[in-house]
Design brief:
- Helix content is about 10%, strand content about 40%.
- By secondary structure, it is mainly beta.
- It has a 7-stranded antiparallel sheet with strand order 2-1-5-8-9-4-3. The protein has a 3-stranded antiparallel sheet with strand order 11-10-12, with no helix packed on it.
- The protein is globular, with a radius of gyration of 17 Å.
- Bound molecules: fe (iii) ion.
- Fe (iii) ion binds near residues 180, 182 and 195.
- Fe (iii) ion (FE) binds next to loops.
């Protein structure tokens, strides 16, 4: 069984945003798809370790912003490479608007957003599959949606461009998660290392320095 077959599946990229009390947060996901038309429904799966998952077990509303080919790497760093448990991902960020449901959607580097009312939660082990109906949706731009392949080829910085990273001390090396871009700096990458962001294992890391 060649698990690399999984890489042949194509995905879009999205910012999933939620609000519980005064706390707003969001994460990058590649799992949103339309799953029915009558009524119109979207599903998306979220890793249980994510803070956004915790929020969506407490709240039935969320937004999904569709990332476009104009998105910069900054957007992925802000929403993908840090945890909402530790930082306020919206601090100093102005490229969003609050939708009618009170949840933000992203206005730059995106081409549409959906406001979703969660109707079902399916426990899938590592992830929960959320299925919801559409409360609102708008087109924000005519720029094509970014696929995961487009991100890998055009948005994610190339290792060659960072031959001598300034953040790697003498005698240490750098590995980057091929899935989400998270970077690990150390003498060696532990075999049992799990990406703190996307939860993929050490074998999904590549040494970039
Ligand atoms: Fe990762």
């Amino acid at each position: 069984m060649n698990t690399k077959a999984m890489y042949k599946l194509s995905y879009g990229l999205f910012v999933l945003t939620a609000k519980v009390g005064d706390k707003i947060n969001g994460c990058i996901t590649n799992t949103a798809i339309q799953v029915a038309s009558e009524p119109n429904q979207i599903s998306f799966a979220v890793n249980k370790a994510n803070y956004t998952h915790e929020m969506l077990m407490k709240s039935d509303v969320c937004n999904i912003s569709v990332i476009s080919e104009e998105a910069g790497f900054e957007l992925f760093k802000r929403f993908g490479f840090q945890s909402g448990r530790e930082v306020d991902k919206f601090a100093g960020f102005t490229d969003f608007v609050l939708a009618e449901n009170g949840v933000p959607y992203i206005t730059k580097g995106t081409n549409a957003y959906f406001s979703i009312v969660i109707k079902q939660r399916v426990d899938l082990g590592s992830h929960t599959l959320f299925i919801g109906e559409l409360a609102a949706m708008e087109v924000l731009s005519s720029v094509p949606s970014a696929t995961y392949s487009f991100y890998q080829a055009n948005i994610k910085p190339k290792p060659a461009a960072e031959a001598k990273p300034s953040d790697v001390p003498e005698g240490m090396h750098k590995w980057r998660c091929k899935i989400c871009g998270y970077e690990y700096v150390g003498v060696s990458l532990p075999e049992d290392f799990i990406c703190p962001v996307c939860k993929h294992p050490a074998e999904d890391f590549e040494q970039v320095y």
